[in-house]
């Protein structure tokens, strides 16, 4: 049917970054089938197998669960909670340790891959064709393998992972994104993708890997120590720490990692989580760097891209306008990158022929992109004009170099141990090399990050920013060969400083964060350029935020993830929308006087997770909300085996026979279309088959009894009622609704008017309403 | 009456850090009088003139106000909001500029004061007695002036200000803390206090000054541009940015400033505020440093306490245990500092004779403390063993020095331009000097910060930490003169690095923050010691947090500010307390069928700001809550002049006379003890006196009419009802209640059971309950 088809398409769009590589094949069909059984809400492909849970409800369970059942367990509960805190720290240490190991091993493997490519390429220097084939085949094989592997094992591992984490931390559980399969696919896929030398980043996927690691560790600890680790609120806290660990151990930047993860994933942030993040990220970064020392790669713990700018006079005050212009330009560049990235995906999707072809041959697209990119970077070919033989790491080290390139006219001045010579072409100016590098890398990165492999865009963007900064710096150095400083001493301009500023500004613009400033300080080990970096990052952000959404928000929109978008600064039309404009007026509810029949009807017609309880149909005074599962158990208790048996026993006694035990193998009962009733009957059937059929009650009698039971009023005594579901008023503005929804992580809220239920508004309505406005704004 | 006396004592405890200096004098009496009229809640000295407002309610107003009245003003509203965003940035720039100027001028004045003291002291080197008198008199005069000035102008300016800001940002409005008087008192008092050279800090008060500045700027802008600047939600956002500015422009540390202010003031943090903070703090730090360059103090913008540690090998891996031990020791030291500080205040309060004496002569205490401290630091006296002649700034520069002191056996090696020679006594080892410095400064700082002058404890603690770190570093350097590194090259130990680590760790331990790590990087301009700093800070925090509350929380408790304390990690007994244990069961409510008489009674007996509206006395179903002012206006409308006149006109018409106009000069009406009714009658009286008495209606008739009016059921049509006041369940745990109260900034919440109102729990109950537990824990 149509619904299934819609669901299938939706699923696929969610799972994949690029829809074009995914056939409407086995996976989608399975998913669709799962959805049909599982709990698709009304029309909602948007909901799918995601279960949105109210954080407030979690909070309640959080404390209720260990204690709710008995009053006597107070001391046990206390012990439990103390041990929980201890376990928290153990958990964070384990997470940090694990992630540092993963990060280090991955880096090692990536370096090995890149060495292997260089070795192959270097060994074949007699024949350029062979050299070209070696240069090109290697990345194509790696990327194709990566794409195929993730495709087969876990298509959820594709892409950055930050958008998904943002959605998950918002309270939407995307369970398939936190499985062991995804972990394996992401780690191996990412290693291969980065090993290929394509302009891809490690940082976004690493946030996802860390979260996966945390989720799996939680499960493992739960299996080991019992239920503590199953609480969802706790998991959210741990995931939020894990995001910090991901960035922290990827760049050895604990502070920047914590801040970046806060900025990227949160709207409201609990300061107590900040602690966990700091602790875990520091520990992880520490281990990550210690491993490097133990492996004799480094003498001691220092920054990853250590710079050596002079300390006493890092920059002149008069250089600040140049830094400001650099920041503004990076802002435009960042917005352009996000736009370009989205444009490529949308183009591919709209072009029906391309789309169809790519959907059928899903590995063709990454292979083609890789072929194109590696052909263009082939060092003896076009690559010689854009430092093509350097890896990302080498390029960055060269760009952060504290010497000035443009004045080094003669080749002798170059230190051949460093990678700076790659930038210096015998015939071509260093400016041309830099400009070509920037332009080529810009579109290559935008294209490469749309490939269906695990990859991030942070590092490529960072590199482009560094190159752009270096370009500006070199121009400044050429314009003012003796520095700008007027009186006395000569302080030449440091183009490396511009590179640092550019890197922070462009990556800040693309991700809409200011913490990239902190990340560059930790990456370079120098903080002397703090003011230029801060100024450039803030300006870049101001420009980029007014032009485009952040890269992660853009991907969220492309993937149609169930995330509540931010209310941006510019969208003031939404201040005039009120809840009454968007609420659903046809609320499903039950009343205090409802019969079981009403209950059954409500359960059959809708798929809502919670139902409103009102006093009566006339007064409509909202008394609370009840979870679907509670109602189901009420109903199944009423019509369940226990009561059936009792009734039959009663009947039997009335008939004077003691062997009056039942056969209820009567699927023909007119009033049991409900799934759980079926299940119950089946269970009963099995039992009875074993016991043997001893007496046959007429189906008529059973049906009569059922009808009678259904007409009885519901007894809410043994039912958990949430007596204070979140309520809004009709005139509540969209802005306030948005704030409350994101602050409390709500799924839905009832709209009341002096206690009377008049409607319901769910995340879906709010999201749709904002989406419409946001889409129309860009 | 007793209530007033209690209120007076409470007020005074709130206003002053040290209660001992405040007479139960004019101020307290005035306050008490104000309270009596204003709105003291039941027994509550705790509530006083603070009005707690629900943030959710603010949010509502935030958007409702411009639009609520007409549907046609949509476009106007839009324009208004767009201009608002622009004004935000203007506001932040102005704030940054202003604060940078204040900070720079203050620094300049402080430096001038200290120079003056040195000059006086230096000029009198012929006579030691004169020298001593000059050395001692100068700070005593300054501190006494500072104490007297703040006493007279605004006693609220006393102390750090961070605890107050924490309370204000929690949603409690302490209006007297944000006045122009307080601003003047704080700025001048702080300048004098710091100019005296006592171990006091600038940072805490600067947070307060920045907030004052923001509040005043808001008022000014409101007067200039209209109502936009009066919104409370907006003010909170701006205050939160102002706190960041305060730290940022005090240390020229924008990132650290933002993080520190978040950690110190917030529980839940909106990431969008982070932006404003970053922008304003960066701008402010920039201007602050640019002013120094323009004033020829510096060649270019660099860090405030620039260090020059080597970059390639900042520390050895094997030194990390030493850093960890330093961190743990700082944790204990920090807890001891907080304990000592509180002990001094409590001792003073408990000793009745001391207390009485100090209350009478309020300037004696600061003068005595200053005399003691400056006597002990007198350079030719005991001061020679503890580098007494150095100012805080000079000491810090010396401690962060990158040379090793302990090996400099001969005096010639010292660079006499630097301040290191002060640490080297001809007879005494440098270790002894350092130990004496640490011990003396430790108790001196703890005592000095209890003086009733505007002062913070951050900087003194920072300095002690630096000295302690330097001590550990020097010991390490003495133990391993050639460094620890095993293979090949010799890397001597850098004791200055230990000083940096110690400073961050001790200040982190005292304030319970990790962002001190970022502050030291920005202060020193070097980030090479990032891992040791992070490790030490985290360990110091872990130790200090398990032993004592933070200094600011400790002051909040001493001052009895209306702040909801944190639920610490260790307080698990609170997981077993439920709302039903602490709620007030005797809720004042009105029903849908209430008469105006009931209304009047409720208004007269309680002082609650909002009242519950229930369906009926039997059902007790909660329909919403109504603000007191709404009810008052309902009541005054019912008994008001308009209706009185109408009634009298009616009477007159009935009597056939047209000149039947009223005299209502009847204070004897039995049913008008309510203040507003009085007011109304008085107003009417005035009008009538002017109009002249024309006809006399018998008091009997009026009273009858009033009785009749009071017996009518209330018409809620024109009354604003909040239809969704926050509700809890009886079994909600204290932990959840706490989370919800702090997340939403609630003042009170109703406790319901299936929609039926059973109790109310307010901030007061929650706070008292937590306080009891916390106090018992420490």
TrEMBL record, chains A, B:
User: Which GO terms label this protein's molecular function in UniProt?
Assistant: voltage-gated chloride channel activity
Reaction equation(s) it catalyzes? thiocyanate(in) = thiocyanate(out)
Q: Where are the transmembrane segments?
A: 89-111, 132-154, 174-194, 206-226, 238-262, 274-294, 320-342, 363-382, 428-449, 461-480
GO cellular component term of the entry, any: chloride channel complex
In the bilayer, the protein is annotated as:
Multi-pass membrane protein
Q: Which domain of life is it from?
A: Eukaryota
Q: Main subcellular localization, coarse class? A: membrane
For whether the record's keyword set contains Repeat, the answer is yes
Query: What UniProt keywords are attached to this protein's entry?
Result: CBS domain, Cell projection, Chloride, Chloride channel, Ion channel, Ion transport, Membrane, Phosphoprotein, Postsynaptic cell membrane, Repeat, Synapse, Transmembrane, Transmembrane helix, Transport
Q: Where is this region: Disordered?
A: 656-678
Cell compartment(s), UniProt: Basolateral cell membrane; Cell projection, Axon; Cell projection, Dendritic spine membrane
Biased composition (Polar residues) is annotated at: 665-674
For this protein, the record's Pfam families field holds: Voltage_CLC
Q: Assembly and interactions?
A: Homodimer. Interacts with auxiliary subunit HEPACAM.
Q: Which family does it belong to?
A: Belongs to the chloride channel (TC 2.A.49) family. ClC-2/CLCN2 subfamily.
PANTHER family from the UniProt entry: CHLORIDE CHANNEL PROTEIN 2
**Protein name, per record:** Chloride channel protein 2
Q: Which organism is it from?
A: Myripristis murdjan
This chain is encoded by the gene named CLCN2
């Amino acid at each position: 049917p149509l619904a299934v088809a819609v669901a299938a398409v939706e699923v696929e769009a969610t799972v994949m970054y690029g829809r074009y590589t995914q056939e409407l094949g086995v996976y989608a069909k399975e998913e669709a089938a799962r959805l049909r059984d599982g709990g698709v809400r009304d029309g909602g492909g948007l909901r799918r197998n995601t279960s949105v849970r109210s954080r407030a409800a979690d909070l309640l369970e959080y404390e209720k669960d260990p204690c709710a059942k008995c009053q006597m367990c107070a001391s046990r509960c206390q012990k439990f909670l103390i041990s929980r805190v201890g376990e928290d720290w153990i958990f964070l240490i384990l997470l940090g340790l694990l992630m540092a190991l993963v990060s280090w091993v991955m880096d090692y493997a990536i370096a090995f891959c890149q060495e292997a490519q260089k070795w192959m390429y270097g060994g074949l220097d007699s024949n350029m064709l062979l050299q070209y084939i070696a240069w090109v085949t290697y990345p194509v094989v790696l990327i194709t393998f990566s794409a195929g592997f993730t495709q087969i094992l876990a298509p959820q591992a594709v892409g950055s992972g930050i958008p998904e984490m943002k959605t998950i931390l918002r309270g939407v559980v995307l369970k398939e994104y936190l499985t062991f399969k995804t972990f394996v696919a992401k780690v191996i896929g990412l290693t291969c993708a980065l090993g290929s030398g394509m302009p891809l980043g490690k940082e976004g996927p690493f946030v996802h890997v860390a979260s996966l690691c945390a989720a799996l560790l939680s499960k493992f600890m739960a299996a080991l120590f019992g239920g503590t680790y199953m609480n969802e609120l706790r998991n959210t806290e741990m995931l939020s720490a894990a995001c910090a660990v991901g960035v922290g151990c990827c760049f050895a930047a604990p502070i920047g990692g914590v801040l970046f993860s806060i900025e990227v994933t949160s709207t409201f942030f609990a300061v107590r989580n900040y602690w966990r993040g700091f602790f875990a990220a520091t520990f992880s970064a520490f281990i990550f760097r210690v491993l490097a020392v133990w492996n004799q790669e480094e003498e001691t713990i220092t920054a990853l891209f250590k710079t050596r700018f002079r300390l006493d006079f890092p920059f002149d005050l008069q250089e600040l306008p140049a830094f400001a212009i650099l920041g503004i330009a990076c802002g435009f560049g960042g917005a352009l990158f996000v736009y370009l990235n989205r444009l490529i995906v949308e183009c591919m999707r709209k072009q029906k022929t391309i789309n169809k072809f790519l959907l059928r041959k899903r590995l063709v697209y990454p292979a083609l992109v890789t072929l194109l990119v590696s052909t263009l970077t082939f060092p003896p070919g076009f690559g010689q004009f854009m430092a093509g033989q350097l890896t990302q790491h080498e390029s960055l080290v060269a760009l952060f170099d504290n010497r000035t390139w443009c004045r080094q006219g003669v080749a002798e001045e170059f230190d051949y141990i460093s990678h700076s010579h790659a930038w210096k072409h015998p015939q071509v100016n260093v400016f041309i090399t830099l400009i070509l590098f920037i332009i080529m890398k810009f579109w290559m990165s935008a294209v490469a990050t749309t490939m269906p492999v695990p990859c991030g865009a942070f590092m490529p963007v960072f590199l482009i920013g560094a190159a752009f900064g270096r370009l500006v710096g070199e121009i400044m150095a050429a314009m003012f060969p003796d520095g700008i400083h007027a009186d006395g001493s000569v302080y030449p301009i440091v183009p490396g400083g511009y590179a640092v500023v550019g890197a922070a500004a462009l990556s800040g613009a693309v991700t809409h964060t200011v913490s990239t400033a902190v990340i560059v300080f930790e990456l370079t080990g120098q903080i002397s350029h703090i003011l230029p970096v801060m100024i450039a990052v803030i300006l870049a952000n101001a420009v980029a935020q007014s032009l485009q959404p952040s890269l992660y928000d853009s991907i969220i929109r492309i993937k149609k993830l169930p995330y509540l978008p931010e209310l941006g600064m510019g969208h003031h039309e939404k201040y005039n929308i009120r809840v009454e404009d968007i609420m659903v007026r046809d609320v499903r509810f039950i009343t205090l006087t409802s019969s079981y029949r009403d209950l059954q009807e409500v359960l059959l017609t809708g798929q809502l997770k919670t139902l409103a309880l009102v006093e009566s149909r006339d007064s409509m005074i909202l008394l609370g909300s009840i979870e679907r599962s509670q109602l189901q158990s009420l109903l199944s208790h009423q019509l369940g085996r226990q009561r059936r048996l009792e009734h039959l026993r009663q009947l039997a006694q009335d008939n004077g026979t003691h062997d009056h035990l039942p056969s209820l193998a009567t699927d023909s009962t007119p009033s049991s279309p409900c799934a759980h009733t079926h299940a119950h009957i089946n269970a009963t059937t099995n039992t009875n088959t074993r016991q043997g059929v001893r007496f046959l009650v007429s189906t008529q009698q059973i049906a009569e009894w059922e009808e009678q039971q259904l007409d009885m009023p519901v007894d809410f005594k043994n039912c958990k009622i949430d007596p204070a579901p979140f309520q809004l008023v009709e005139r509540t503005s969209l802005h306030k609704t948005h704030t409350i929804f994101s602050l409390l992580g709500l799924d839905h809220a009832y709209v009341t008017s002096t206690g009377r239920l008049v409607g319901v508004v769910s995340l879906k309505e709010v999201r749709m309403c904002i989406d419409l406005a946001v889409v129309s704004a860009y």
